Amino acid sequence: MKVAVLQGGIGREREVSLESGRCIAETLRREGVEVVPSDITPEDMTVLDRPGIDVFFVALHGQFGEDGRLQQILEDRGLVYTGSGPQASRTAFDKIASKNRFASAGVAVAPTVEVGAAMSRREIENRLKDLGGRFVVKPVRQGSSVGVFIVDGPAEAAARAVEVCEEFGDGMIEPFVCGREITVGVLGRQTLPIIEIRSKTGFYDYQAKYVDERTEYLFDTIGDADLRARIDRDAMVCFDALGCRDFARVDFILTDDGVPYALEINTIPGFTTHSLLPKAAARAGVSMGRLCVGIVAASFCRKPVQQNVQTVDSDSICF
């Protein structure tokens, strides 16, 4: 089998994507797969015309890779690729649209104030009066905590929101939900062990995710079996509410009174040494090799029926 690993791209998470792609490519090679690494951009998609490639492993984070644009191109060309389709990707990349889907499916989410470039600081402040004293300001369409601020007071939140809109376009403000940051990987039709994330700075930002070796990733920190079951169920509900497939990671804040608030879903989570989906998979007994090969195999099964899919190891599809 020949797999093209699509990495790099044009987003602010480009360097993380290159590292994810490198880890995926090295892993697949160790598993005996022929790999074609490609730093793909909208200006250079020549790898998509290369003959003989069975599956395109999409490892682009953020813009172009995770927002559904590349998936739509692959879909239009009839190519087989990993992960969620265009519509699910677009919805997941839009934090407001995805939160609305979560809420409609019965999952708890924090209130949200959407902020546009045309709004004044005074207007934004007025909308925050009844939402508490601490806020999270973020772009609607970014990943890896790029452009995210935790601030005190409506005035500071409004000022930061204006900055976010100027740099990223649409922004959003949520009341700060105090609790433990947890994440749940979804692989096929099963959830992976829950990870609690503890940043030494108190904010799981870009630095804590990819650079700071002090960030802790802990398993088995939730003793209540019913609560664990609820979190797993909510993660799968979020996954299905957006129509995701193959794999994803759902982020929550777990409050002290046991309510998991869904934050967002990542349809192309990282595959670096710091990344959480591979950590959770390993905890469940799924090695990095089995994870990557299983994702490729699941995608390969979506080839048109007239092509030979009997060479796929069905055990790999089940991870």
Structure description:
It is a single chain. This protein has about 325 residues and is α+β, with helices and mostly antiparallel strands. The chain is built from eleven helices and 13 strands. The protein folds into three domains: about 1-80 and about 300-315, Rossmann fold (3-Layer(aba) Sandwich), CATH 3.40.50; about 90-110 and about 180-280, ATP-grasp fold, B domain (D-amino Acid Aminotransferase, Chain A, domain 1, 2-Layer Sandwich), CATH 3.30.470.20; about 115-175, ATP-grasp fold, A domain (Dna Ligase, domain 1), CATH 3.30.1490. About 35% of the residues lie in helices and about 20% in strands. The strands form three sheets. Strands 8, 9, 10, 11, 12 and 13 form a six-stranded antiparallel β-sheet that branches. The protein has a four-stranded antiparallel β-sheet with strand order 4-7-5-6, with helices on one face. Helix 2 runs antiparallel to helix 3 (about 85-95) and helix 5 (about 120-125) packs across helix 6. The longest helix has 17 residues, at about 15-30. Mean pLDDT is about 90; it is low at about 305-315.
